[in-house]
Design a protein that fits this description.
The complex is a heterodimer of chains A (113) and B (168). With 113 residues, chain A is an alpha/beta fold. Chain A is built from five helices and five strands; from the N terminus they run ββαβαβααβα. In chain A, strand 2, helix 1 and strand 3 form a beta-alpha-beta unit. The longest helix of chain A is centred in the first third of the chain and has 17 residues. Chain A is globular and about 35 Å long. Chain B is of the alpha+beta class and 168 residues long. Chain B has one domain: Heat Shock Protein 90 (2-Layer Sandwich), CATH 3.30.565.10. Chain B is built from five helices and five strands; from the N terminus they run H-E-H-H-E-E-H-E-E-H. In chain B, strands 1-2-3-5-4 form a five-stranded antiparallel beta sheet, covered by helices on one side. In chain B, a hairpin with a 4-residue loop joins strand 4 and strand 5. In chain B, helix 2 packs antiparallel against helix 3 and helix 3 runs antiparallel to helix 4. The longest helix of chain B has 22 residues. Chain B is globular and about 35 Å long. Classes of the chains: A alpha/beta (113), B alpha+beta (168). At the A-B interface, helix 2, helix 3 and helix 4 of A face helix 3 and helix 4 of B.
């Protein structure tokens, strides 16, 4: 699992994930996601290249999302594949972290209320 | 055990289909790296579609990691055996056997989906994911531990298996 970040205009941090969010993948992103969660207030997680999402991977997304929201920030997931999105919906994660397939709508969702 | 959607009769559990493959893991999370390539080999060999493979990986990750983390509670010298059986065409199952204290995941209370307002609970979605991605899940207590059989149709979740038809 690879993780990279990119600062977009408007104060949005794009987190690009690539690979499998299984137990090993979750361990690989835990620390960087916690750092992001502690310092960023508008986070777009690009899921386009995440090929697998298990329950440990869910934890690795949910915990930072709660931290960001707890600090008054916003986080969205962008463009997960069909099966990854099914995991997000089945677990109810999409109610905590909205899923967008259109980049502009994802960016709009991150704007301050 | 009450009538639960995935509480299958022991009919299927008792037809001891011949194992076509078996993987034995030590009770360490690092051992789980062996699961994906093993599953990929089986799905390739048996022409199982990638969407079903995704469900298999999801379910086995959840079940095996739970055995290691909770069933064995950190003990690293135990084992988890995963067997692949194919009792009939286009229908197959993974049987997970351990020697942990008795635990029937089908008896666990249904957890609600993640609640955005509930800070206390993260995760715990395992059985919900199993029910969504597997066609059948059966539990059996063994003399030395637990046996969980997770069944899949090659057609995916849209095809209702004969044994699940009476239980859904």
């Amino acid at each position: 699992m690879a993780i990279a970040t990119e600062e977009l205009t408007g104060g949005v941090t794009k987190v690009i994930l690539e690979g499998r969010l299984d137990i090993e993948g979750a361990a690989a992103i835990d620390l960087p996601m916690n750092v992001i969660a502690g310092s960023k207030k508008a986070v777009l997680v690009d899921m386009q290249n995440v090929s697998f999402l298990g329950s440990m991977g869910l934890r690795a997304l949910v915990a930072p999302a709660r931290a960001i929201k707890g600090r008054g920030g916003k986080i969205v997931l962008f463009a997960p594949n069909e099966l990854v999105e099914k995991v997000l919906k089945t677990s109810g994660t999409d109610s905590l972290i909205p899923v967008h397939h259109d980049l502009q709508s994802a960016l709009n969702a991150l704007q301050p209320s | 055990m009450g009538a639960r959607p995935f509480a299958m009769p022991f009919r299927e559990m008792n037809d001891r289909s011949e194992s076509l493959a078996q993987l034995t893991l030590r009770s360490r999370l690092s051992e789980m790296a062996q699961l994906p390539p093993w599953i990929e080999g089986l799905t390739s060999r048996h022409g199982i579609p990638s969407n079903v493979q995704f469900g298999i990986e999801l379910c086995l990750e959840e079940v095996v990691s739970n055995v290691i983390r909770h069933g064995y509670a950190g003990a690293e010298d135990r084992s988890v055996v995963v067997r692949f059986v194919m009792p009939r065409d286009s229908y197959f199952a993974f049987v997970v056997e351990d020697e942990a204290p008795q635990f029937n995941p089908l008896d666990a209370p249904d957890l609600k989906a993640i609640d955005p307002e509930d800070d206390a609970r993260i995760g715990g979605q395992g059985i919900r994911l199993l029910r969504e991605f597997a066609n059948t899940v059966e539990y059996e207590r063994t003399p030395t531990g637990n046996r969980l059989r997770i069944g899949f149709s090659s057609a995916g979740k849209s095809e209702t298996s004969p044994e699940s038809r009476n239980n859904r």
